[in-house]
Each structure stands twice: as C-alpha cells, then as structure tokens.
C-alpha cells in the first residue's frame, strides 16, 4: 500500500466515524482543526500510534516496512 493511499484512508475513517478535525482552516498550520487533522492522519506529535493506538499513515507505513514521514508536507 502506498503512503498516499494510507493517508487518505485514515482521513476517510475519521470522516465516516464522525471524528474528523478538519474545519476548512490552513492544513499546514498545526493550530487549526485542519492542521491537527493532517498531523493525526500522518500520525505525528501527540497523534503517534505509540500514544494513541489508532491507525495512521505512519502506523500503516511501519506495517509495510516503508519509511515514516517525519512532518506533514504534500509529496513528502
């Protein structure tokens, strides 16, 4: 599975579960809901799998032996 697909599937899980933090704000600003949603989807900072035990792009990358993303930026 690609990292991009994993990332979007995590967003879909949040939307379908009613827990998405996206608020239409700047997704690159970690203080907005949208920025927090991106950090959560990737699995960064307080949203790391080791802390939350919830699936993220990075937890899926780890399962597949892919390198983890260290920060949120498109095409990274």
From TrEMBL:
<protein>
    <submittedName>
        <fullName>Type III effector HopH1</fullName>
    </submittedName>
</protein>
<feature type="region of interest" description="Disordered">
    <location>
        <begin position="55"/>
        <end position="76"/>
    </location>
</feature>
<feature type="region of interest" description="Disordered">
    <location>
        <begin position="18"/>
        <end position="37"/>
    </location>
</feature>
<feature type="compositionally biased region" description="Basic and acidic residues">
    <location>
        <begin position="24"/>
        <end position="37"/>
    </location>
</feature>
<feature type="compositionally biased region" description="Basic and acidic residues">
    <location>
        <begin position="55"/>
        <end position="66"/>
    </location>
</feature>
<dbReference type="Pfam" id="PF14891">
    <property type="entry name" value="Peptidase_M91"/>
</dbReference>
<dbReference type="InterPro" id="IPR028208">
    <property type="entry name" value="Effector_pro_NleD-like"/>
</dbReference>
């Amino acid at each position: 599975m690609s990292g991009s697909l994993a990332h979007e599937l995590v967003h879909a899980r949040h939307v379908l579960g009613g827990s998405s933090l996206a608020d239409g704000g700047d997704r690159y600003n970690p203080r907005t809901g949208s920025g927090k949603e991106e950090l959560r989807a990737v699995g960064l900072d307080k949203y790391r799998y080791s802390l939350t035990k919830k699936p993220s792009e990075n937890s899926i990358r780890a399962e597949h032996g892919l390198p983890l993303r260290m920060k949120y930026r498109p095409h990274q």
